[in-house]
Structure formats: structure tokens, C-alpha cells
């Protein structure tokens, strides 16, 4: 937690927040902060700044907050990910939030196991919890939006063509394609497959609506390695 | 497992291997391979190729092996990592092996918890197990070398100056430094700190022997995200 994320409900008076639970424990146990110590904070979807500890009690920590710094620029990237298995999903959500991705579509594909869609992790609160951890890690405040799309064909053929308007669109897929370009620095949409990859018909569907199929080189990387790897190439 | 890694001991006659344990289970349960099916294989520290299933029995699978393809070029990168906590170490070893890193120094720094050095994961067999998983993921055969260095100062001041001879050397450290350069494509040594980072004195020690301090931008990334991110920038 390199930044403590604050929410409206945390304010007990103008400029003063009271934190309990996970954030309080972190402030006390990891930062070992006492009265007068300064911590980095950020308002959800707002500015970042610093907080001075006013009081620590068994059940809470009070801090005086000054928000005076804009959060880092968002990454102009929309990620379209085949829904990963729950354990992987947790890490991926944290990872993409920490990298500054703000639009994430989790979609069904042929090789996504049906059971993944009934994971409790897909409930809005649980998704948000993982995203918060990513924002706190990288010092960002802007909550990413996660969209769930359980039907591949309607999403890709009806919704996705609008999403890619004015953007470059890539499907990352192992094979003899051009390697993903470097330093594109423009708005992009990036589609990445599940364990085992997209099936050829899915790759063709993306191609039909204007995606370029690209590889990451000879090596086949796990999703959680491939995501930072390809984002670092694009931006 | 996108490649099944073979060892000398697997051969029961020239060109024929017999696999049991984890690899056999994977071939039967995940690949669902039967007699005649072809699988991608690679000889440890040797060539890659294909194997045809000859026989499956309750305790083993026999395959006829042809090795005819060189493994991917190694990454000309030496990684110097502050020893991460064991849970993180497992994933990091798999990740760096999958990315093609072949030289890894795990070192002590001020903020490395002493208890991490007594993890059973640091035993040679256990290290190798994790590295094998990374090689199998990315389709590589060349086993990375992991060097353990429990004393920061002697390592950095005596051994590291020789290691960086003829290479570019970078310390990744959050701060107002130049961002890590792109597409260096030369042999590099990259030092990365523990959770909480290197202390300033450590950064200065690296600087003294010729390392350039670089940042990854405004965001602070977890080690397992930062490693693929920075490798993708450098190569």
C-alpha cells in the first residue's frame, strides 16, 4: 500500500478522515505511524495528497488530509480479456489497475471454463476490492471499470466495433504474426485469450472487425506476465 | 505446460523416453493425449522438438522423441533481485524463467526480512522446480542459474563490478530519475529492490560502481509486474 485510498464516507468533518479495518491495520502495523506522521493518500476518482495522523485509537485512526496533486494520467488502453480462472483473475485485476488501465472487458470464449462465471469474485464489491489493491500499490485514484460479457459473438460483432472506433486494435495470439509494435502511444484496444488461447475462429472474428493479430515473440507468456509485457511495449 | 521438459534420465532407449509423475499426469489429464498423439518437448539445456505417444500405462507414458529445433535465444540480461518473500519468489522465478533470463542473483538488502533466507524454496531442487515451470510455460529448455548472495556489501563491491564489465547496468528505483531506456538490446544488468525498495545508501552503492538509477514512471509496480514491464522496455 503505497497510497491509502480514501472514500467520501471516510470524512468525519471537512479535511479529517477516520479509518478503520484494513487501512487502519496497515497504517499501524506496516507504516507503524503514530500521531504527527505523514502518509500518502488519494481520494477515489480524485486528487492525491498527504495525511497527518491526528489520533490513533484501538478501533480507528484519524488523519488531517490535504489533496493537492493530480493522479497519474490513465493509460489510453481498453483491455478485452478472456475471463481467467478466479485465482488468476485476482492478480490480473490488481496488475491492470496498478498499470493504469481504466476499461476492462472480461469476456467469454470457447476455452473459458463455464464455472469461472459463477465465481464470487465477479460480484461488484469483490471486483472493486482487487482493483483498490492495485491502485494503492501504484499510487493512483481512478477506479477502473470492469464490464462482464458472457456472450462472445454479440459482444465482438455488435459492441466491440464501436469500442474500437478511432483506436488501434490488437489481438495478442501466439503464432507467426508480426510482433506487437512498440511505443504506439495512441488509444488502443487489446484482446488477450484464455489459458490455451483463443480458437482460430475467434481470432478470425476479431480480424473481421478490424483487429490486427500480433504475437509477443517466440515465448508463450502467462497472462499475468504477458499483460505488463505488452503494455510496456505499447506505451 | 506448453512444452514438456525432458531430462537424460527419462530415456529408456535411444529416442524413447518414459515419463511418470507430474508430466505423465499432465499429458493424460490436460493434453488428454493417447497413442499416436504428438506433443511439444525439449531436452533440458538442449534442442526442442516433438514426441509421439507410444504407450500409456497407469504409471507411465512412453514417447518417441525427435529433437530438431534450437531453443529461443536467451535474454542477455543478468537480474539482481533483493530476495522476495517466498510466495512472491515462486512466481518471480517462474516469470523470469519464462521471459528467458538466464542469470539471477538473489541478494540481501536492508529491507529483506531475515526469515526469507531460511525458506525451503531456496534449496537447489526447489528452485529448479519453479524454473522448470517457467521454461515449460514459455517453451524454452535452458535452465537459468540462480546465485544466492547473503551479504550485500561484499557482493556489490567485489563481485558485481566484474559482472557488469561490458554491460549496461541499471538500478530500478522509484524517484525523479530518468525513465528506464527503451530497446537497449545490449547485455544489461538490472538490480531491483525489495518491498519498500532499496535504502538510499544501497542505491548510492550501486551508483558508485557504475549503475544508472532509473524509474519506471510515476507508478510503483509490484516486483512481479515490474519485471516483465522493464524487460519488455529493455528488449
From TrEMBL, chains A, B:
It holds the Pfam family Methyltrans_RNA. It catalyses: uridine(1498) in 16S rRNA + S-adenosyl-L-methionine = N(3)-methyluridine(1498) in 16S rRNA + S-adenosyl-L-homocysteine + H(+). This is Ribosomal RNA small subunit methyltransferase E. It comes from Desulfocicer vacuolatum DSM 3385. It comes from the Bacteria. Specifically methylates the N3 position of the uracil ring of uridine 1498 (m3U1498) in 16S rRNA. Acts on the fully assembled 30S ribosomal subunit. Gene3D superfamilies: 3.40.1280.10. One of its GO terms (biological process) is rRNA base methylation.
Amino acid at each position: 500500500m503505497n497510497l491509502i485510498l480514501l472514500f467520501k464516507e471516510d470524512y468525519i468533518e471537512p479535511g479529517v478522515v477516520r479509518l478503520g479495518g484494513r487501512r487502519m491495520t496497515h497504517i499501524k502495523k506496516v507504516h507503524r505511524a503514530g500521531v504527527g506522521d505523514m502518509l500518502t493518500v488519494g481520494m477515489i476518482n480524485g486528487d492525491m495528497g498527504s495525511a497527518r495522523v491526528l489520533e490513533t485509537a484501538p478501533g480507528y485512526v484519524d488523519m488531517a488530509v490535504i489533496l493537492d496533486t493530480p493522479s497519474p494520467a490513465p493509460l489510453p488502453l481498453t483491455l478485452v480479456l478472456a475471463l481467467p480462472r478466479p485465482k488468476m483473475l485476482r492478480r490480473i485485476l490488481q496488475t491492470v489497475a496498478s498499470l493504469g488501465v481504466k476499461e476492462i472487458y472480461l469476456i467469454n470464449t470457447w476455452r473459458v471454463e463455464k464455472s469461472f462465471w459463477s465465481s464470487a469474485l465477479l460480484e461488484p464489491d469483490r471486483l472493486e476490492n482487487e482493483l483498490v489493491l492495485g491502485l494503492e500499490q501504484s499510487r493512483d485514484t481512478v477506479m477502473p471499470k470492469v464490464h462482464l460479457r458472457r456472450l462472445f459473438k454479440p459482444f465482438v460483432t455488435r459492441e466491440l466495433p464501436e469500442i474500437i472506433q478511432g483506436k488501434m486494435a490488437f489481438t495478442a495470439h501466439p503464432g507467426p504474426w508480426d510482433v506487437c509494435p512498440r511505443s504506439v502511444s495512441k488509444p488502443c484496444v487489446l484482446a488477450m485469450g484464455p489459458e490455451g488461447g483463443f480458437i482460430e475462429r475467434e481470432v478470425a472474428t476479431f480480424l473481421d472487425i478490424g483487429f490486427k493479430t500480433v504475437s509477443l515473440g517466440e515465448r508463450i507468456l502467462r497472462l499475468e506476465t504477458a499483460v505488463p509485457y505488452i503494455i510496456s511495449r505499447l506505451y
